[in-house]
Amino acid sequence: MSETTSKTDPSTPESQTGSTKGSEAEQPATFESLGVCPELCKACDVLQWKHPSRIQEETIPYALQGRDLIALAETGSGKTGAFAIPIIQKLLDAAPHRKLTWACVLAPTRELCVQIGQQFEGLGASINLTTATIVGGLDMVTQAMSLSKKPHIIVASPGRLVDHLENTKGFHLKTIKFLVMDEADRLLGMDFEDALNKIVQSCPRDRQTFLFSATMTNKVSQLQRASLTRPVKCEVARKFDVAKGLVQNYMFVPHKHKHAYLAALLAHYKLSTVMIFVDTCLNAQRMATTLRHLGHNCVCLHGKMTQTHRLGALNQFRAGTRSILVATDVAARGLDIPSVDVVINFDVPKNPEEYIHRVGRTARAGRTGRSVTLVTQYDIEPFQRIENKQGKKMDELSEVNEENAMSLQEKVLEALRSTQLEMREQEEDIKEALAGKKGGRGGKKRQHQMILQKLAQGSKKRR
């Protein structure tokens, strides 16, 4: 560490990149060896966290020393435990029985907020830890009642938290001792910058701040300088790393037969859990409907679904009652779905960063997994950018070939025709119902969103 650097600029991080263990690197660390208290060591054991992950090894000791942190780590690396464990331990040391809000955790999506809240509840089950998850799409009054009870931990999306700071009487963040910004690069990429600034200004200065991010962008650096004091930088993954257990493949397919090749892939991986990524909400809905016509057990997840339907779809996939999840990039970051075997990029991601986030759904926490990217004649340039960023070529998947795909072509075309007819009929019904509600700002956008929501609801009923 360079104390002179941090004294010159209080916001300049001291770098730690895995060197803190020295000669003890051969010995697997334990939570106890990191300074975690017996109550939380037991909680980790109950959650089957046998050993700390690399990011937990690097961050927990500094967090327990009271330092601010910038942590760069791959998705699925145990980031939630890295900040939740020291937060709960500090609460146990200080005021476990007092009614006060101890920490505020910010995350970019509703699903990630719910997931983080669940992990806090799991770690704090034996000490009666209280949490409140504050996200858009749910009732403000109910959330205000939860906040009035002064939960120990608030997990929130920035926009909805600012709504409560401005409109909920008596609510404030003056007592918090910890502020966490998870997936900071994505928070800033989703135009939450103004909301983050308001939240930071609402927090006391004598707090610890943890900033977790997959990448170190210019905006993340600016946020770090504005909100952290003498932070320690912990980095366990390069910008374009993929998990060690991930096998990356591609298939070069004609655009007009793309669905047939996907059907052949799913037949090959019929005993696996699969996530399929597409580029738009409407395409996600179409894909899920088509796959159901082909007899597959699937759900979809996209940003135009209601909160209830999104969580319902996610829970079905997590529980194993649905083996295929069709998703847009709203599901590509941060979600803990531990049993994904295969990620299929039906649409090639627009940039290498999104590719990394997508394939991070598999091969998590030391497990193995596979990704398959379908590359058409129109996708060569973005696909080559992905390979160039990683500095290596992917292998072509040999297990599925043209003969496999063409044997399913007729069945696939029939499923696509049925999907087109079904969605057209439902869209017409919905448009007729909305005919008397035209006008006003954003009318077309609201109509499009309602159509997608109704289609999702209709698909759920048919399942």
Low-confidence stretches are 1-11, 17-26
Q: What's the count of strands?
A: 15
- CATH class category label of the largest domain: Alpha Beta
Termini Cα gap: 57 Å
Oligomer: single chain
CATH topology of the largest domain: Rossmann fold
Beta-strand share of residues: 5-15%
Describe the structure.
This protein has 463 residues and is of the alpha/beta class. The chain folds into 2 domains: 3-235, P-loop containing nucleotide triphosphate hydrolases (Rossmann fold, 3-Layer(aba) Sandwich), CATH 3.40.50; 246-462, Rossmann fold (3-Layer(aba) Sandwich), CATH 3.40.50.300. 45% of the residues lie in helices and 14% in strands. The protein is built from 18 helices and 15 strands. It has helices spanning 3-8, 38-46, 54-64, 79-94, 110-123, 140-148, 158-167, 184-189, 193-202, 218-227, 258-268, 281-293, 307-319, 352-359, 380-390, 402-406, 409-434, 443-462; strands at residues 14-16, 69-72, 103-106, 131-134, 153-156, 178-181, 208-213, 232-235, 246-252, 274-277, 298-301, 324-327, 342-345, 369-375, 395-396. The strands form 2 sheets. It has an 8-stranded parallel β-sheet with strand order 1-8-2-7-6-3-5-4, sandwiched between helices. Strands 11-12-10-13-14-9-15 form a 7-stranded parallel β-sheet, with helices on both faces. Helix 13 links the parallel strand 11 (298-301) and strand 12 (324-327). The N and C termini lie far apart (57 Å). Residues 1-11 and 17-26 have low confidence and may be disordered.
